Amino acid sequence: xxxxxxxxxxxxxxxxxxxxxxxxxxxxxxxxxxxxxxxxxxxxxxxxxxxxxxxxxxxxxxxxxxxxxxxxxxxxxxxxxxxxxxxxxxxxxxxxxxxxxxxxxxxxxxxxxxxxxxxxxxxxxxxxxxxxxxxxxxxxxxxxxxxxxxxxxxxxxxxxxxxxxxxxxxxxxxxxxxxxxxxxxxxxxxx
Length: 191
What we know:
This protein is α/β, with parallel strands linked by helices.
């Protein structure tokens, strides 16, 4: 089964490819524009992206949306995690804003949640999600990963941030790893 990835984020596309070895994944064509993520939920944004790419290519499309939900911030940044520090924010901008808002906060519990979804040209959808609980570090640690990885310490990670882990270690416990493994199983089951 050939699936067109809806993401143009190279970091995320590489991670998805590593999670789904042997799957026929095609990059999003360069002439397909970004989709405005206007939905209030991760599910809604994943669906928007997958449908837009499926309609543009005529092929089954795979999309995901991920949110970092911090307890002390009432679940923020959540659905706007990639744009937390503004529409053109870099990974570093978002991390800096998160750490500034968490300054002096003792309750550092957080979770990452990913919704992964495939939309087929016949209208069928297959969806899965993955969650990992953890805490926000007080300062960035590690050189790997991307996004909030330098400040997210997952449960089951030995006290290390995602950025301090190898790709395989991260994928074994991460939200995206859990979501895409569940999605692969659902796709195989839907046959």
